[in-house]
Amino acid sequence: MELEELGIREECGVFGCLASGTWPTQLDVPHIITLGMVGLQHRGQESAGIVTSDGCAVPTYRTHKGMGLVNHVFSEETLKKLGGSNLGIGHTRYSTSGNSALENCQPFVVETLHGKIAVAHNGELVNAARLKRKLMRHGIGLSTSSDSELITQLLAFTPPLEEDHTPDWIARIKNLMKETPTSYSLLVMHNDVIYAVRDPYGNRPLCIGRLIPVTTEERSKNPTDTEGWVVSSESCSFLSIGAEYYREVLPGEIVKISRNGVQTLDIVPRHSEKDPSAFCIFEYVYFARPDSIFEGQMVYSVRRRCGQQLAIEAPVEADLVSTVPESATPAALGYAEKVHIRVASPPIKYPCYMGINIPTKEELIAKRPEFNDLAGYIGANSVVYLSVDGLTSAVREGIKSFKEQTGLNGTTSPTSSSRGHCTACLTGEYPVELEW
Questions:
Q1: Per UniProt, which keywords does this protein have (predicted)?
Q2: Domains defined along the chain, listed by start
Q3: Assuming Cys at both sites, which of 78, 179, 272, 384 could form a disulfide with 314, CB separation 3.0 to 4.6 Å?
Q4: Catalytic residue among 12, 17, 207, 306
């Protein structure tokens, strides 16, 4: 199928906030979401959107979306219009196939039999074409070219066993997870709760943070006091809002976040118990911010271990190790007697169909003739990439250390023995069968 047919090659960030305690809250929910989205700006610079709610029995939803960076889309004036809210979700988007339009900006809001829901999605559905055909066969029209709209429509589509008067959102979410195995981390807002959902393979990240009281006096009175809960694609966004990292959402987990706290509703298994999870290893390599925490370890530490492993795999006698500079490169090359390039990642050889902007082989240097003599092509004495085994060992070393320090194990642990990583862009081995 042609890539342009669906137009859904995107990288995104999601962020949600819900105030604890008595409502209406004194917490400035829209402002917190905005700051959180700024912390996720690297995950999407094309558009940004926020949907807030007062969480009443018949909630009032307020929405603002726009093209551009978060700080360009949201001003003090627009944030005031989103005020009077007790919960909300936000989204930063980056599309990659030409459908750069306001209509594709998230979060999406749809009316269901049980009121409105708002949905923010990070990832890319591997079976989007089939799901699109299924919805259309049921007479459901689509107004955007984003696979995220398919998610909202599938959630609104009543599961066979549900009665009209029983809004069983767990059943609806589980029905969605049955329909599509990966790739998604979702925030679903309905009435007074936010559901945080991660696909059974855990391909995209999602974590929860706790908003702690601002003053030292308040914190000393009760260290467990919580002003609210936040949920984010990456923990780095917690730093700018004074939130404390709580935990990651596990693969297949459905978490209900309410003013009463955080509750696991279910953990949906993968289609086969033999299948390991498949967290995107490229998040460690490039996409995530170095100060984010995945699987109990900081991304920075993994990248550092990759460099250490690279020194073992491809040693070279040198007086200087330098990261890639910019304007001084020509002068440095002219001065240097020899130039040896070491890349702390394996070469990217295959497209990604699960949320990273690598849609075709043609754009990859590793798939071009020049790769056979890359050193000569770029004017270096040698070019060596880190091996796939070297990368995976650097990632798993930190997970093993985290497991030993915490003693966590079993299916509820982020260090479960069935935990794996998606290396499809490096090896061509995809965690699930792709559908077109």
A1: 4Fe-4S, Glutamine amidotransferase, Glycosyltransferase, Iron, Iron-sulfur, Magnesium, Metal-binding, Purine biosynthesis, Transferase
A2: 3-269 (3.60.20.10), 276-436 (no CATH)
A3: 384
A4: 12
Question: What integer best gives the mean pLDDT of the chain?
Answer: 87
Would you state the pLDDT for residue 85? 97
| Structure tokens belonging to residue 418 | 């069935």
Q: Quick one: average pLDDT of 44-55?
A: 96
- Phi (first) and psi of residue 390, to 5 degrees: -65, -40
Structure tokens at 197: 């959902």
Q: Check the annotation: does 17 bind a ligand.
A: no
Neighbours of 368 (CB within 10 A): 13
- What pLDDT, on a 0 to 100 scale, did the predictor assign at position 224? 64
The span from the first CA to the last CA of the chain, in angstroms, equals: 6
User: Is it the case that residue 170 has pLDDT exceeding 80?
Assistant: yes
pLDDT for the residue numbered 33: 98
Does 425 count as an annotated binding residue? yes
Element (H, E) at 34: helix 29-39
Distances (CA, A) of 331 to 157, 317, 328, 341: 61, 21, 5, 16
With a cut of 90, say whether residue 20 has pLDDT above it.
yes
Enter the tokens of residue 150. Answer: 């398919």
352 in a known ligand binding site: yes
| Active site annotation includes 12 | yes
Structure tokens at 223: 């260290």
Tell me how far apart the alpha carbons of residues 13 and 94 are, in angstroms, rounded to a whole number.
9
